[in-house]
What does this fold into?
Amino acid sequence: MRRDLVFKIWVYTILIIAIGLIALYSASYSNVRVSQKIFYDQLVCAAIGLVIMYFLGKVDYRRYYDIAYIFYIFNILLLLLVLLKGRHALGATRWIELGPISFQPSELTKLGAILMLGRYFSNRRPNLSFNFLSKAQMVWRDILIPFGLTLFSCFLIFKQPDLGTALLVLGIFCGMLFVSGIEYKYLFSIFGLFIAMLPIGWKFLKEYQKDRLLVFLNPNIDPLGTGYTIIQSKIAMGSGQLFGKGWLAGSQNQLNFLPERHTDFIFSVIGEEWGLIGTVFVLFCYFQLIYYSLHIASQVKDRFGMFVTIGVVTILTLQVVINIGMVMGLFPVVGLTLPFVSYGRSSFMIFIIMMGFLLNLSKRRKVF
It folds into this structure.
């Protein structure tokens, strides 16, 4: 049974990566802005990443428990460094360059938050009683402290600015808090607080971020500006119909109507070239990967392993749902990649590492 589960994690991960490489080749085939070098770059990342995934599956995941807080502090230092000396591109400062290699510390924050929260929640279980003092202690110890640590990371990411990743990290906190044993009324109170803070948060958004939210409500208010990408994305998705136009035959893609089609909007390329059948198959692969990950979480031996698995499932699910919803016009454009499919070395390698954790966790499940 264990080998069967490991095999399925491998199969669906490799399938999604292969789909991504096929789509990325097409997206860069006649791209006047991006050369096909990105395809070969992603291909090398995939080869190296799968090797890393294999070896991570051999390392006892409990070793990461010991370094969880150290890793979090290291990531905070990187986030501060990127604000001070990071590379500025496309209106944001998100990259640190080490010679020919550049990476985004904000992607590393996803893993750092999962490990930090996993260790914290695994050591503490909310003890909600009718004693006022114990409730106050629980709120401080089991909610406010991890929330504050997470919020600090989110603030540093937001300053880059990278609103999408900041919200994702908050989503990790909410997902892991949900399974920590907290009563729903406290969870709903936290959500209510988030909603109440939205009008205040609006004032801190950049102008282009405000424009994206307004365009989400009505793309036609700026069809040649902020709304252009989402309009072209919808055209690409709809024109694929049931079976698609065929590989390298999508007009929105090959005629360069669709911007950012190798990163945030690569799902539009899949929809145009492979149609509804192709997009449903991609969703099926993600669903299977998430399903078997939850199966691992339900059977892992200790709480730290369970929380780490839930954190991985949360970030994977959120990023897939938000990215696909974004390219279909169901969510605002927030600049998030599609895991294993979009071009992006930092994002790709972080998700590969997470899959390596899942492989390792699958070997240490309860025996029934």
Notes: Confidence is low (pLDDT under 50) at residues 126-133.
